[in-house]
Amino acid sequence: GAVVSQHPSWVICKSGTSVKIECRSLDFQATTMFWYRQFPKQSLMLMATSNEGSKATYEQGVEKDKFLINHASLTLSTLTVTSAHPEDSSFYICSATGTSGRLDTQYFGPGTRLTVL
Amino acid sequence: QKEVEQDPGPLSVPEGAIVSLNCTYSNSAFQYFMWYRQYSRKGPELLMYTYSSGNKEDGRFTAQVDKSSKYISLFIRDSQPSDSATYLCAMSPYSGGYQKVTFGTGTKLQVIP
């Protein structure tokens, strides 16, 4: 139980384009979802927290107009990187807490590697 | 000073060795402690969690928490090449429901056959 999937697993795009990443909880209802960035040899950096049906809460320094988060249902959250630039290239990971497992434990997706040319 | 400090390694050990991975923290509000394992290019996988000081065992893994010293450890017995991964400690000030989790930078472990 407590499986989280992400799609796509990797994506390459041109500078200036937008990229959408999906995060789904497969076997539980995710009341809260999180989006992280991870650079090589660095820890997970929380970007934003979203609750179903509410606006996401962004961490300090994260541009909410650049990283659009939509938590439309209890099983789906999307992150759209708008007007992507090479510095946005990173590993993006989502996680979720909810009705499966421990309510206070995050279950992570497999991550999406974004490369912006 | 970072809230959570973790030696990045890499740590190389021979197969069968006992591995000790550690984190220190500065925030005394942290009450909930977790260890995640992350394989290269994959998302973190929850290994163990604990609230209290003391030891918690699960198979070859033992999590140890010393709140008085603000120090947590993960021990891996009879280490296997498949244990080669990055291990992240994580902690939060649990008071029911979700609390923001703070992660360590991770320790890269390599178990050599």
Per-chain topology:
The complex is a heterodimer of chains A (117) and B (113).
Chain A: E1 4-7, E2 10-13, E3 19-25, E4 30-38, E5 44-51, E6 57-58, E7 67-73, E8 76-81, E9 90-98, E10 107-108, E11 112-116
Parallel strand pairs in A: 2-11
Antiparallel strand pairs in A: 1-3, 3-8, 4-5, 4-9, 5-6, 7-8, 9-10, 9-11
Chain B: E1 4-6, E2 11-14, E3 19-25, E4 32-38, E5 45-50, E6 54-58, E7 61-66, E8 71-76, E9 85-92, E10 102-103, E11 107-112
Parallel strand pairs in B: 2-11
Antiparallel strand pairs in B: 1-3, 3-8, 4-5, 4-9, 6-7, 7-8, 9-10, 9-11
Protein architecture, described:
The complex is a heterodimer of chains A (117) and B (113). Chain A has strands at 4-7, 10-13, 19-25, 30-38, 44-51, 57-58, 67-73, 76-81, 90-98, 107-108, 112-116. With 117 residues, chain A is mainly beta. Chain B is mostly beta strands and 113 residues long. Chain B is built from no helices and 11 strands. Chain B has strands at residues 4-6, 11-14, 19-25, 32-38, 45-50, 54-58, 61-66, 71-76, 85-92, 102-103, 107-112. In chain B, strands 2, 4, 5, 9, 10 and 11 form a 6-stranded mixed sheet that branches. A 5-stranded antiparallel sheet of chain B has the order 1-3-8-7-6, with no helix packed on it. The termini of chain B are far apart. At the A-B interface, strand 5, strand 9 and strand 10 of A face strand 4 and strand 5 of B.
Tally of DSSP β-strands of chain A: 11
Structural class of chain B: mainly beta
Q: What's the pLDDT, averaged over the residues of chain B? A: 91
Q: Beta-strand level of the residues of chain A, as a percent range?
A: over 45%
Q: What's the short version?
A:
The complex is a heterodimer of chains A (117) and B (113). Chain A contains no helices and eleven strands.
